Amino acid sequence: MRLRRSSRCAFVTILCCLCHVAGASAARRPTVTGELKALVAAGTLAPADYAAHRATYDDAKTTVKKLVGTRKAELDGVLSDLDDMAARRQLTASRVPALFLTLQRNVEYWKTGPLLGYNQRVEFPGSELVYQHYANHGIQIQWLGTWGKLNGFWTGGKRFNARAAHLLDEALPLATGRAGGLAWEYLFPFDGQKPPWVSSLAQGTGLQAMAREAIRLNRQADVLPIAGRGLGIFQTPPPAGVRLETDGGAHYLQYSGLPKLQIINGFVQSLVGLFDFGQLTGDTTAQALFAQGDAAARKEVPRFDTGAWSLYSRSGSSKPESDLGYHTLLRDFLNQLCKRTQAPEYCSAATHFSLDLKSPPKPQVLESNLRAGRTGRLRFKLDKVSRVSVKIAQGARILDTRGLGTVGRGSRYLTWKPRHSGSYAVTVSASDLAGNPATATGTVEVKPKK
Question: For a surface tag, which of 33, 119, 134, 145 has the fewest beta carbons within 10 Å of its beta carbon?
């Protein structure tokens, strides 16, 4: 493209203006250091704390340059998450302790720690907090795991009192201001959510565990006021909170950043946590929040029972069945809620899901529209998620055997190109996730070539 001199001058002028605007925009992008300085200027971060956190950040930046491979990628991911939160002005004063503890632990770990497997958990000497590996986001505080550990201390008895007290002393200062109260947040991207996000499952379990140990340790005065402020997310819609108004009550989301994803096991366990917190503390807000969730859950739970297995979630047109772990977990959570409420909706579902673990699947060979010489669909049906294989035979001769892996319930098919017309015996062998086997055989007619 050729431009006249006057046009070229105008073009260059516009281009320079655009570069200036882009440069100014980039310069205005909030940074970790800039946000920390702003907190000091606002009086919400002490200068000594600023110095310590700035040193941790600088150490991380220096360390990541010295690392290679997976170690470099993991620590770089943690730094990138922190930089992104600062750019989105999510680096608040109350969030600073958890963010920089996470960064410090990642610097410490990735220098010399062994490489980690998928979702492998990690703990550090002198600390009771539980961390978990999330690929490309380093190790992160796993709040559900941490509260589960605190519940384990409570179950284990007084011999764990010192460790339970230490865990509380570590966890309480890491709560962040959120939804008009406090929350123990997850600080990394997950399944499309940008951090920070919260979970009704984790927070409900935390309320339960904190109330139990506060009473056992006679620490109601310092623990319960903080724990009680954790009810805020149950009163607030997403993304700040986890509350969805539905079914004449409230559904509490497992993930605050995924409002369309309603996961039943997380919802049920959050109700167990709210019930226990309300009963142990007499907190009327917790009792009201449980009642509102209970009203919705009694209508929801039956919808997650397929008659042969449980659903993990009901989001739009996608209704995936639970894997074995989640099916068993849901059954266990429902048993806990059944014991507390005696509600038939919970008790019946728990009974059904226990029976599902022993009942074999019911495969069925369906009528198929097949023609010799053409690829078509050989159809079959399952009533529950199972590992499936299909055998096709004509007389004593086996023509094809295929392992299809794990297949969900409903009408399914495999593609097959029969060479000749006639009757074929099709055998569908299915083994559900609990290992219960079943077999069904049917006859499929193949039409002659046209």
Answer: 119
